[in-house]
Amino acid sequence: MQDREILQEIYDETMDKVFSCSANYLMTIPKKGLEKEFEHYSERAFYIKRLIESQA
After folding, report:
1. N or C: which terminal CB in the chain sees fewer CB atoms within 10 Å?
2. First-to-last CA distance in the chain?
3. C-beta separation of 18 from 45 below 8 A
């Protein structure tokens, strides 16, 4: 498996977490700590995407 494919797989898994966190945030009251988890995975996805694009 090439580096780009591995990064894409990690990115996809991270985006699954982002969507899961946002859905949990919208459906949960109170929203304790969910913002931090969402921010963590969103930031991680952003940097992974930049790595993927830099390998193009």
Report:
1. C
2. 16
3. yes
